[in-house]
Amino acid sequence: MAIGDYLSGAAQTGSAMDPMCGGFELTKKQRFYGFGICFVLGFVISLLSTLLLTVGSIAGFAVFYTCGNIISLLSTGFLIGFKSQFKKMLDASRLTASIVFLVSMVATLVVAFTLKSVLLTLICCFIQFLALFWYSLSYIPFARDLFKNMCGGFFK
Questions:
Q1: Nearest to 50, CA basis, from 37, 67, 64
Q2: CA–CA dist 33, 133 (Å, integer)
Q3: pTM, whole model, 2 decimals?
Q4: 125, 79 contact by CB (below 8 A)
Q5: Under 8 Å CB-to-CB from 101, ≥6 apart: which residues?
Q6: Does 3 have pLDDT greater than 70?
Q7: Contact between residue 6 and residue 18 where contact means Cβ atoms under 8 Å apart
């Protein structure tokens, strides 16, 4: 099949914006399903991780909370493509949030497995949450500015 035939066929079937990997493409509907399933699954896993915290398994909590956040982050890859997602994580507007998010994930696991400190693990998880929240806001036009303005009075 020629490239022109492939592109015209892709346009007719409503396939994805760009191939995810190896020429495999998803339709818009499949991408939305992938996004929704990953986002909800990640949220549920993160939420259910608190059950492990209540039974005293700080390491289990840290692993499941971190995995839930990773799955939630991957959900946006279904919308824009995983390659594009990775590139956008390195954009100047998102780089700091990406680095803080990745470092806090590692710190959460290190603290939970080595120091076994509940308080420090929870602090790392909170930083993870804030970094993912700030990163996610970068995809919504003017959302960061709006959030800063909303919180401006609180921090003054």
A1: 64
A2: 22
A3: 0.77
A4: no
A5: 69, 73, 128, 131, 132, 135
A6: no
A7: no
